[in-house]
Design goal:
Length: about 220
């Protein structure tokens, strides 16, 4: 019998692209104020650069604008990571979390800079759904998924065996290997707008046990497990 449901955050409970766009809007305003550019133009440059390659977006845009500076780049990255985001839960997450809280213990494991992830949870107003939240960013690099360590900590927190827990995430490059190594059930939620929807599992150890297209499916699936 399943007793514990553990969630990933980004692109599982809310669309991460919303965070990206929110951050770009904030950064675009800063660049525009500092250099006199039109905010909409800067935002478009950031969004277009992101579409081409998700890495080093600020580097490329600053270079394109001929204002590249290492210190200024660091400032913009910090602003992006610590801004108060305008983000919203997926509709299925908004509806299913209240139900799951009444039937199971809920936990959340999320990678990334801790302040960034905390700001996301505050913006989404979902901290109270989870009995335990693990921010791997404050634990060290060896805690980041696909490490088993955050999953071990979560299971120990509730004194629950791996077979009594499921983990729900979206990214096959890192989300499921750790939970599967411990014998947990792993479930991938496939989001059409997910940033990592086209991610590819390195091998079968990274593949989830189940794939769903909506969190509404989780209710029936959990009843079968």
């Amino acid at each position: 019998m399943i007793k514990l449901v553990i969630f990933d955050l980004d692109d599982t409970l809310y669309p991460e692209i919303e965070f990206v766009k929110s951050g770009f809007k904030t950064v675009a305003k800063v660049i525009s104020q500092d250099f006199g550019f039109e905010t909409g133009k800067i935002y478009s440059l950031l969004a277009e650069s992101f579409e081409v390659d998700r890495k080093y977006v600020f580097n490329r845009v600053l270079a394109n604008l001929k204002i590249y500076n290492e210190d200024y780049l660091s400032r913009l990255i910090s602003i992006y990571r610590t801004h108060k985001p305008e983000i919203h839960l997926y509709k299925d997450a908004e509806d299913i979390l209240p139900y799951l809280k009444t039937e199971f213990k809920l936990g959340l494991i999320t990678d990334g800079l801790t302040i960034t992830q905390m700001n996301k949870l505050k913006a989404l107003k979902i901290e109270n759904y989870f009995k335990n939240i693990i921010y791997t960013g404050e634990k060290g690099d060896n805690y980041k998924k696909p490490s088993v360590l955050p999953f071990i900590e979560m299971l120990n927190k509730f004194c629950i065996q791996p077979k009594e827990a499921v983990y729900i995430g979206d990214n096959v490059e890192k989300d499921f290997k750790g939970s599967k190594e411990l014998g947990m059930i792993s479930i991938r939620i496939f989001r059409n707008d997910g940033i990592y929807k086209n991610s590819i599992a390195y091998d079968k150890n990274y593949e989830p046990d189940y794939i769903i297209n909506s969190l509404f499916e989780i209710k029936h699936l959990l009843q079968k497990l």
